[in-house]
Amino acid sequence: MTECVIFGGLLLDKYFEVDELPERGQDGFISREFECVGGCSVNMAVTFNNLGGNAHVVSYIGKDSVGQAILTYMKEHGLSTRYVGEKEGTTGYCLVFLEPDGERTFLTKTGMELGFSRDILSDGLRDIRYAAVTGYFLLNDQAEEIVQVLEEFQQTGGYILFDPSPLVEYIDKELLERLIRISSLLTPNTSEMECIRPWLSAEQVVILKRGQRGGTVYQPSGTFDYLPCKVEAVDTTGAGDSFAAGVLFGIAEGRTLQEAVRLGSETSAITVAINGPHGFWKLEDFYRKR
């Protein structure tokens, strides 16, 4: 079975559906609300597993009711908890404001999920050759140790996908440069691209995401564009996570880069067409409906 490790925090997503976000200082109404386990890491892990792989999330959770709910959810859905640790404290949450066209706005209260220690990697990532890293995970006091672990992983032949995240500009610049230099594949959107561009090299693969317009893939042998799979957008939360996981799974399975990117577009489309940041599905069902 194809395995990977995903460095990224686990938290709770609290959804609020609104007709539109009010202007600053104004008021509005919430039409519906619900909660679900979230965080880029679990979104990636679910997609990777849906494709037939086994993803291991690296994250602490608090010893509170939210943390226990996350742990129960992962076990019930067959998600690995090998590198999920518990610490005294609260688990973080994210307020997600979802508009009718699928666009969303976030506000996050961080918790134990932004902590890190080598102790959580109980077996030292034994036999795992592929890793994904979310930019959000480097916004903590242990970011130096995280990058050290990833440098060691890369030096022993590990393949790293780095998804920068919208808050990439707040990552320590030295650590960001070090992580970019050891990453084989990066998946920024247009605004994130400007933050990481100074440290990119011609040997890396960079997938520049442009949302509904698809994107461009830059590789040592040249560039190519890709188109998105057209679906009716319900909720765009987790689309980028699902795309990254689909691409990483394709690479890990030995597919060509074009095939891996196509797979990422398909998994992203499935995620956009459902409510919530991830769902449990089979790729064959997606093909059958098209």
UniProtKB/TrEMBL annotation:
<dbReference type="InterPro" id="IPR002173">
    <property type="entry name" value="Carboh/pur_kinase_PfkB_CS"/>
</dbReference>
<dbReference type="InterPro" id="IPR011611">
    <property type="entry name" value="PfkB_dom"/>
</dbReference>
<feature type="domain" description="Carbohydrate kinase PfkB">
    <location>
        <begin position="2"/>
        <end position="273"/>
    </location>
</feature>
<dbReference type="InterPro" id="IPR002139">
    <property type="entry name" value="Ribo/fructo_kinase"/>
</dbReference>
<protein>
    <submittedName>
        <fullName>Carbohydrate kinase family protein</fullName>
    </submittedName>
</protein>
<comment type="similarity">
    <text>Belongs to the carbohydrate kinase PfkB family.</text>
</comment>
<dbReference type="GO" id="GO:0006796">
    <property type="term" value="P:phosphate-containing compound metabolic process"/>
</dbReference>
<keyword id="KW-0808">Transferase</keyword>
<dbReference type="GO" id="GO:0016301">
    <property type="term" value="F:kinase activity"/>
</dbReference>
<keyword id="KW-0418">Kinase</keyword>
<dbReference type="Pfam" id="PF00294">
    <property type="entry name" value="PfkB"/>
</dbReference>
<dbReference type="InterPro" id="IPR029056">
    <property type="entry name" value="Ribokinase-like"/>
</dbReference>
